[in-house]
UniProtKB/TrEMBL annotation:
Domain (Tryptophan synthase beta chain-like PALP): residue spans on this chain: 16-303
GO molecular function, one term: magnesium ion binding
Domain of life, source organism: Bacteria
The protein, known as: Pyridoxal-phosphate dependent enzyme
Alphabetical UniProt keywords: Lyase, Pyridoxal phosphate
Gene Ontology biological process terms, A to Z: D-serine biosynthetic process
Entry cofactors: pyridoxal 5'-phosphate
Similarity field: Belongs to the serine/threonine dehydratase family.
Pfam families with a match to the protein in the record: PALP (PF00291)
Amino acid sequence: MIPSKQDILNAYNCVKPFVHRTPVLSSSAINELAGTSILFKCENFQKMGAFKMRGAVNAIQNLSEIQKEKGVVTHSSGNFGQAVALASNELGIKAYVVMPENAPSVKKEAVLGYGAEVIFCESTLKAREATSKKIVQEKGATFLHPSNNLDVILGNATATLELLEEYPTLDVVLTPVGGGGLIAGTALSAYYFGKNCKTIGGEPSNVNDAFRSLKSGVIETNETSNTIADGLRTNLGDINFPIIQKLLKEIICVEELEIVEAMKLIWERMKIMVEPSSAVPLAAVLQQKEKLKGQKIGIILSGGNVDVKNLPF
């Protein structure tokens, strides 16, 4: 059973006082290259620099008072950790963030800066989950999954709701696909608030578990996490996958070089900072421009938390 239109509207009312209504920008140079009209919903300008603030606020707001007293814990390579840290700080709640040792230093510093307690672990999903579980047992904190949590998904859906309020005639909305929380939320808003608006995912070929999951009908995993798009190394979950299966049109897989080129294009032509994960949907449009030609396209620029000392171009 997928969430209702009212569930998204409730989430929007819940997050609205705590998030920015981010701008929608376009670039005539990029439109010319793509052979179509693209509108970029700039969640890189969101508080803490990514769409994840929306899901974190909604999930925390929906906890009981007893849960709020004991705090929250999450595991994240960066953006959701930052979102939980900042949202918790603004709502007066204790936050614990489990981070892999190899998370970008810019993201580690930001989580600490927002006042969360950071616990480092090995950079495997198994280590993240085990460390989070230990904190739940020891501190009584509530675990917030970065992408496989209905309140997080509904919070994430509000970015596309805002985009479609401003541009109701979009044909397609594209987002990157990592853990599935953004694409599931986007697909819900496109379904309820768009006019025959399709949702398409962009995913690195090196970690194309969602692409394979959509084909096989079961949640697939990756053997490696070898992609520059560090926000997209996670797997789908049992809460977001049914939404994705029901509402997603397709997933386009892109190569590492295509991601870097798309990222460079956004930096150079639009003069805005985006992280590699954010560039994946544009890479997908440029790769499939014959197929998408002439369609009105929305892209969610998911985040801008990038280590400027370590750019890929």
